[in-house]
Every structure is written in C-alpha cells, then in structure tokens.
Amino acid sequence: MAGDGLLYRVYERRLSKELESFDLPQHLGVIVDGNRRWAKAAGESTAQGHRAGAAKIVEFLSWCEDLGIPLVTVWMLSTDNLRRPPEELVALYEIITSTIEQITDAGYCVRLTGSADSLPEEMREGIARLQQETSPEARLTVNVAIGYGGREEIVHAVRELVRDLGAQGKGIEEIAEGISVGAIAEHLYTRGQPDPDLIIRTSGEQRLSGFLLWQSVHSEYWFCETYWPGFRRIDLLRALRDFCRRERRYGA
C-alpha cells in the first residue's frame, strides 16, 4: 500500500532526526543470521538465501557509512559453518568472495577477522589481494569475520603471545607473568581497534554463539526477529535508538 510506504518514510525520518542528538557506536558488530530460513520461507534455494544475505551486507554497510559509524564487524562464516555440506560451502565461498569485492569497490577498508588457514587457498589469496587494494583512509573499516570462532580467536591470541615471549628468550615463569589481559588483547584479530559498542543479531536467536567473546565484555546487544535478508534501514535505526537510550555502566 502506498500509504504504508509513506508512513514508513515518515517514521524513518523521525528516527534519524532523533539520533542526531546522540553519540552513535564507534564499532558495530552484526551477526547476520537467518539466510537459510529466509530462503525456505520464500521458496528459494539455500544459495539464493545466502546471495540475498550478501546483498544485504553491502546495503547495510552503506547505511553505516551514511550514519558516520567508522567500524563494522560482520560475521560472515563461523568455524561451525565450516561443517556444512561441501556443496553449500562451495557456493558460500564464492558468494563471500564476491561480497568482499563489492565492499572494496565501495571504497571501504577490509580487514580479515578469522583464521585464513581454514579457507581454501584460492579464497585466501583472493581476500589477501583485495585487502591490499583497500585504502586505510576509508571512512568505513569492515572486519569480515570468516572462519571465525570466539574461542579459537582467544586460543590463537594466547599461542601467538607465548611464541613472541619465547622468541624473546624468556623462561617459563617469565612467559606466565607476561600473559595479561592487555598482552592477549594485542594478539587478537581486532588488535588496535576499539571493542564493539553494540552487537546486533537477526533471526530471533538471542545468543552470541562465540562472536567476539573477548571484545564484547562491555558491549550492548540488540536482537530482532527479522531474518537477515529482510533487515531494513529502519531496523538499524531502531537498534541505534535503543542503544542510545541505555545507560552504559561498564561493569560498575
């Protein structure tokens, strides 16, 4: 209905205006969930669901750029996802690579967040090449979480820290003393970046599933019932409004 569209635009403008008086997140995390369920409900193939979800990622990032949010982490493929059927994974790898190409073409800085070793060699090389083509001065940096698991990230960080301390000739006791919160943080995939202020998850699931386990200790969460391909700009604005209305205590 034309009237519904008008009401939607009016509501969207009202939300945008309301957000002008608030400080928006400097780091936004998003768990893009529900592609397969969206496809099933729409009578589409699983691959088409992933394609629709990939297109939504590119659109979502443009909304974040317009709003001045400088850093977004998008969970595109988890370590658990790597156990899906081979034919689905092949399609996923192609869709993800194409999506990263679109992200770099949009002028955003891409940073891989995850274990490249878990990905096919051709895909690893393609992502590495695309990362080299992006500008660090871009208005928006996008962490693409691929082959990512929160527990695996922490294990990886501790191993790298221990290797670094061992390479410095430190003994067992000195290595143990050198393992600290700050030292581990410097070896995470997101090292040098602020922790996420807000994490959004779609599809009605209300859990993190291991997303940014270390970094999310003081994050705010926002869950919605919408499957990811159906996520709208107005949903993002509602999430941001809810975030801005909260009093962040940081454990105090």
TrEMBL record:
Which terms in the GO cellular component ontology are assigned? plasma membrane
- Keyword Metal-binding listed? The answer is yes
Where does the source fall among the domains of life?
Bacteria
* Family annotation (NCBIfam families): PRK14828.1, uppS
UniProt-listed Enzyme Commission number(s)? 2.5.1.-
Q: Which cofactors does this protein require?
A: Mg(2+)
Q: What class of enzyme is it?
A: transferase
**To which protein family does this belong?**
Belongs to the UPP synthase family. Z-FPP synthase subfamily.
Write one Pfam family the protein is assigned to: Prenyltransf
Q: Which residues form the signal peptide?
A: none
Q: Name one GO molecular function term.
A: ditrans,polycis-polyprenyl diphosphate synthase [(2E,6E)-farnesyl diphosphate specific] activity
Listed under subunit, the entry gives: Homodimer.
Binding, substrate: G34, N35, R36, R37, W38, H50, S78, T79, D80, R84, R201, R207, L208, S209
| Function per UniProt | Catalyzes the condensation of isopentenyl diphosphate (IPP) with allylic pyrophosphates generating different type of terpenoids.
Query: One GO biological process from the UniProt record?
Result: polyprenol biosynthetic process
Q: Which residues form the active site?
A: D33, N81
Q: Which UniProt keywords apply?
A: Magnesium, Metal-binding, Transferase
Cofactor binding comment, as recorded: Binds 2 magnesium ions per subunit.
The protein depicted here goes by the name Isoprenyl transferase
- The UniProt annotation places Mg(2+) binding at D33, E220
